[in-house]
Amino acid sequence: MANKSILGVFQEVDEAVTAADSLKDNGIEDFEVLTSTPYPEGAFGEKPSHHRLYVFPFIGACLGFSAAILITAGTQMAYPLVTGGKPLLALPSMFIICYEGTMLGAILFTIIGVVFESRLPRTGKLAPYDTRITEGYVGIGVDVPEDDVEKISNIFKEANAADVHLEAT
Amino acid sequence: MSNSHHVVEITVKTPSEVNNEVLGWSATLGSKYRLAVGITGLLFLLGIVGFFIKVQDGFDDYVPWAYLTAAFGFVMLFAMSAPMLAIVPRLARGHWGRPISRIAELWALVGVLLLIVMIPLLLALPEADGRNTFWFVDKYREGWPPGAPHIWLALLMIGLVVNGIALLWAAAIPDFAAIRDKNIVNGKSANLYGKLSLGWRGSKRQWRGLRASHGVLGALYFATLIWSHTMVSFDFSQSLVPGMRDSIYPTWYALSGLQSGLGLVLVTAFIARRFGNLKDYIHINQFWSAAKILLALSLLWAYFWWSGFIIYWYGKNETEMNIIQLFWFGAYRPLFILNIVLSFFIPFIFLIWNRIRKSDWGPSLVGFVVIVGSLVNCIRIYTASFSLPDGAKGHALHHVPDSIMKPDLPDVLMVTGLVSGAILLYLIAIRYIPIISTWEIREGMLYQTVRNLHKLPLKVIGKPD
User: Fold this and answer.
1) How much is the pLDDT for B392?
2) Any domain includes B9
3) Which residues contact B453 (CB under 8 A, 6 or more apart)?
4) Which residues of chain A have a pLDDT value below 70?
5) In the prediction, which pLDDT does B3 show?
6) Quick check: is B2 in a domain?
């Protein structure tokens, strides 16, 4: 059976916390909290989760460093001219270019990481949303089988939801 | 919430009030704003005229471009360093930085203007080949690295500007979403805010990503900023002075950037508070806290300058004696004295007093003085470095000019034009990007309250991590 997204919108934070508690009492641990400001982890009793943004600058830095090494060492090795007994690779000047390459790679991949880790931009099937969330309302979103939609809707209403939105079919 | 000893200020508003006041703020910008846009726009246009007059001198000789380089260095120092006041409090979990973080990071947009101005300067800048630079051209391998310093310096600046704009954009996504949801704009503007917010909904995952991006992009910005200041001071100043080998000079220069960037944020915050009616958001605490850092940076400025200077003083070979004459005791002595008074003595004398630190006008006035000191500093070091014809290729400084390099009319137009252009860009930006980070204000309100300790009201701050 297909799942449906349902969003309860609450004017007061306490009401949203009550709804989240009721969801957990009904065995639903996996719900999404939408807010206009970052609440600390666990403020709504939601499951703690982790992000992997720190991986992106690391990968970017490695790629940027590798590209810089490829450009600097590669071109010097391709034309191995030894002049005046000087070494083949000019390491000090390579170091600066490698630093720039590393930083640029890390910066660009961090930007990609921010977009990816935030699951932005949102395309395809759009989950329900309420513009009042940026005005301070709190949204509790949950994906449930179609049969449970009414039950969840009632939980939200009992917690004094200002509105309940269903995913458009 | 006050008694005779101190005032406790916190923002107490509903999220909706914050949105209405801050997101609708740009619509309240009146005749003074339009006048400021008009004046800076006119000066910027005159600066472009000055540039085209100067272009007739060509790019074969770098000497005529001394004043534009000084203006470039000055604007880069204050504008690109300003976002550090958004980065540092966020990394250190300093709640006091919330109301002024956007004011600080908006200055990163000026980087676009700097990239454009950098093109003629790089055309005029001599190759690194044959002079003492950080690029070690020919030192370890013949002809290596090619394109130094031009290509690599441009790449570094592009990295800095991209990082700064990414930092601003990442922090402003929730505000763009709020503008999108509030329907205060329509047509193409609404579409643009929708695209800039990338479909932001405010989920936990998105907030986590946003917060982590501040840490990573902030750390990368700091590393790139210090390196950019280092390389610009090397390539446009130190390496043009034959025989000048000073490892403290770039560090001192980067520190000047942090000092003037902080001064700029204080001045901008003061104008926004006093003339932009944002007293409910920007409190005395922001000035008080930033003033302590400004005092520390001013002390460090003097210490770093002294550390560099003392090596020349005790070295006393011909080149070192001439460098002392060139930068400090010769023709440029009046500018140096003015510089040290504005960048060290005035900040020190004023900011040691808590009464002055704990006001909005005191730190802002000192911030303005520090910015002027930074301008004098850039004119001094860049025109002195550019005043040595063929100096770039020499290995010892045998001759020091008897007089300072005087600006001609195009120089004056270009300097005022570039500074005005930076301010103009900022003025245009605040029309479209909220000058206060609304989500940071709302988050701050979650963690702050006032409690009474008997008869004394105290601010209580929660620290979730």
Assistant:
1) 61
2) no
3) none
4) 1, 122-126, 168-169
5) 42
6) no
pTM reported for the whole predicted model: 0.92
- Residue A139 tokens, joined: 């949204």
Residue B246 lies in a domain: yes
Q: What share of chain B is helix, strand, coil (3-state, %, to 5)?
A: 70, 5, 25
- Residue B53 or A124, more confident: B53
CA distance B365 to chain A (A): 34
> What is the per-residue pLDDT for A168?
62
Per DSSP, helices labelled H in B183-241 are: 188-196, 204-236
* Residue B222 contacts A where some CB pair is shorter than 8 Å: no
Binned at pLDDT 50, 70 and 90, residue B168 comes out as very high
Q: Is the pLDDT of residue B374 over 60?
A: yes
- Closest partner residue to A40 among B199, B213, B465, by Cβ? B465
CA of B313, closest CA in chain A: separation in Å?
A: 29
Q: Is A4 helix (H, G, I), strand (E, B) or coil?
A: strand
- Name the minimum distance, in Å, from the CA of B449 to any CA of chain A: 16
> Amino acid identity, residue A97?
I
Multiple choice CATH, A3-37+136-166, 3.30.559.70, 3.30.70.120, 1.10.10.60, 2.60.120.260: 3.30.70.120
CB pair distance less than 8 Å for A107 and B210? no
Q: What pLDDT digit, counting tens, does each position of B241-267 carry?
A: 988 889 999 999 999 999 999 999 999
pLDDT of residue A1: 63
Measure the CA–CA gap between B349 and A109, rounded to whole angstroms. 45
CB contact under 8 A, B140 and A83: no
Q: Are B47 and A169 in contact (CB under 8 A)?
A: no
pLDDT band at B186 (very low <50, low <70, confident <90, very high): confident
DSSP assignment letter at A48: P
The distance from CA B418 to its chain's CA centroid, rounded to whole angstroms, is 14
Beta bridge mates, B169: none
DSSP 3-state of B235: helix
Q: What is the ipTM of this complex?
A: 0.86
CA end-to-end distance (rounded Å), chain B? 28
User: How would you write A13-38 as a 3-class SS string?
Assistant: HHHHHHHHHHHHHCCCCCCEEECCCC
- Determine whether the interchain pair A86/B135 forms a contact, defined as Cβ–Cβ distance below 8 Å: no
The beta-carbon neighbor of B181 closest among A104, A123, A131 is A131
Q: Which residue of A has its CA nearest to B14?
A: A136
Please count the structural domains in chain B: 1
